[in-house]
Amino acid sequence: MRTLILITVLFSLSNSTYAKEKIKKQKQSKHLNYEECVTKFGVDDTSVAIINVYFDKRHNAGTGQMSFLPITLALTAITPPIGIGLSMVSSPMFVKGLIVRNRYSHKNMIKALNNYHNEKMISDNVRRKVTNYMLDEQEDKQLDQQEDYITTLRSAE
Predict the structure, then answer these.
(1) Which residues, in sequence order, are CB contacts of 18 under 8 Å at separation 6+?
(2) What percent of the chain has pLDDT above 90?
(3) Is 149 part of a structural domain of the chain?
(4) Distance, CA of 15 to CA of 41 (rounded, Å)
């Protein structure tokens, strides 16, 4: 009986060790933060723009839309008639936030980056967002250059 228990314990420990190693390998590519993604995948401006679009949509749009439901549920405990009405309004926003977070997940970002690096192809939706992002970046750089030029002119006077 003791040998059976000992074998079972050893077997479960070896399986858990293998599972931890497998999870660690998966975590290396899926759960990178912004800086790690830029250093690993950001070989050019378009790659960095794709990373920025995915992180911006995931963290700002998805989380922002999902944040209203917990607030309205807390409000339901205080004032039920108002809270129920607001939770009916914020529930679709919560679902939309889940969809946005799923659409702009790390997995989909890595797929888009691999497609771009291997085939130089970007989906139409991502291409529009990347183009708008890159145009905004160019405008910001031009504005910064103009402000620097104005400050140098003022300091020369």
Answers:
(1) none
(2) 0
(3) no
(4) 33
